[in-house]
Every structure is written in C-alpha cells, then in structure tokens.
C-alpha cells in the first residue's frame, strides 16, 4: 500500500506555476496506485470538498496565525472527521514557528492528540532549530518536520539532529533529495 503523506491540492500558479484540482489528484492517485494520502491548501473549505469526494484522501488544516480568527477556523476544521492534524507553513505565511500566536494552535493539537506538519528547510522561519524551540516548549506535541530540511545538507542534518534530541519530532521526507540520509 502506498500512503502519500504530503500532497498539495489547488492552485499555486503565482508562486510555483503549478496547479492540481480534485480530479487531477484523483487521477494521479489511481495512475500511481496511491491508496491513501493527505492533502492541504490554505483554503480549508476547498480541502473539505476534495477529501469528501476522493476516496482514501484525508486533510490537514492549514493554519496561519497571522489571520483574524485563526484559532476558531482551526478548531472548526479539526472537528471534521477526515482532518488528521494541521499544516503550518511559516515561510509562506510569514511567522516564526515559536511565535506566541502559534502556541494556542499547538495546545489545541495536544488536546486532540493530533500532529502538526511544519514546512522545514528555508531561512529564516523554517529552519529545524527554529521549529525545535516549539518542540521543546511543547513536549506533548507531535511535530513533523516537512521535507526533513529540504535540499540543503546543513538543514537536512540539522533536522536529523533535532529529531534525535526530541522524541516528539518526526521527519517527513518529501522533496528531500538526499535519499542516503533516510534510514
């Protein structure tokens, strides 16, 4: 069984020149025999439409603590039965992972025993050591370093070190080109 734990859905045309809609992700899953997957996009309502219509898909709530009402939005969508946790992208959304505004989100996740996937691997907001501050402050939180530091060996090695020091930190390998680091 193939389970893809890191799937973007929707349009990212302005930033990356790519887009994939509900039908596109369904087609890719069938073509590549992916039985289950986790999708996310800043528009959580759109993710609901996708996960309710594509068998085997689950969602992560995209949380941006810079937006008004972010905690209420996160609480609402985390209540959906097909949402498994939260996605944070400090780089795109412009916040430090250990900013006090993030803490209520982490407390909510700890309360519900749900993980958070945090984009990792780009200065300044998504370096593994910045995310480690959050992990140390919330030892009951399940924190996943998305991309395991991405494409820079210093950040990849740093992600490994952070995970070894913190039992509540996990590594996710999508977009990480150094396969010899995965063991």
Description:
The protein is an alpha/beta fold and 183 residues long. It has one domain: TIM Barrel. It is built from eight helices and nine strands. The strands form two sheets. It has a seven-stranded parallel beta sheet with strand order 1-4-5-6-7-8-9. Strands 2-3 form a two-stranded antiparallel sheet. α7 (128-137) links the parallel β7 and β8 (142-146). The chain is globular and about 40 Å long.
Q: Which fold does the CATH topology refer to? A: TIM Barrel
Helix content: 25-40%
Report the CATH architecture: Alpha-Beta Barrel
- Shape designation: globular
Query: How far apart are the first and last residues' alpha carbons, in Å?
Result: 19 Å
Tally of structural domains? 1
Strand order of the largest sheet: 1-4-5-6-7-8-9
Condensed summary:
This protein is an alpha/beta fold and 183 residues long. The protein contains eight helices and nine strands.
Core attributes:
alpha/beta, seven-stranded parallel beta sheet, two-stranded antiparallel sheet, globular, 8 helices, 183 residues, TIM Barrel
Q: How do the helices and strands line up, and which of them pair or pack?
A:
Layout: E1 2-8, E2 10-12, H1 13-16, E3 18-20, H2 22-31, E4 34-40, H3 44-53, E5 57-62, H4 70-78, E6 83-88, H5 90-93, H6 103-112, E7 115-119, H7 128-137, E8 142-146, H8 153-165, E9 169-171
Parallel strand pairs: 1-4, 4-5, 5-6, 6-7, 7-8, 8-9
Antiparallel strand pairs: 2-3
């Amino acid at each position: 069984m193939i389970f893809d734990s890191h799937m973007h859905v929707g349009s990212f045309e302005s930033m990356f020149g790519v887009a994939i809609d509900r039908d596109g992700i369904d087609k890719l899953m069938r073509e590549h025999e992916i039985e289950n997957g986790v999708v996310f996009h800043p528009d959580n309502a759109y993710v609901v439409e996708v996960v309710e219509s594509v068998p085997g898909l689950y969602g992560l709530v995209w949380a941006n603590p810079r937006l008004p009402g972010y905690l209420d939005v996160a609480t609402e969508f985390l209540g959906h039965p097909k949402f498994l946790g939260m996605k944070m992208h400090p780089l795109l959304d412009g916040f430090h992972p250990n900013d006090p505004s993030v803490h209520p989100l982490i407390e909510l996740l700890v309360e519900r025993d749900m993980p958070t996937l945090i984009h990792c691997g780009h200065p300044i907001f998504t370096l593994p050591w910045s995310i480690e501050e959050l992990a140390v402050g919330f030892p009951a939180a399940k924190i996943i370093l998305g991309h395991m530091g991405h494409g820079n060996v210093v950040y990849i090695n740093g992600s490994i070190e952070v995970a070894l020091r913190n039992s509540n930190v996990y590594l996710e390998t999508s977009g990480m080109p150094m396969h010899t680091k995965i063991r």
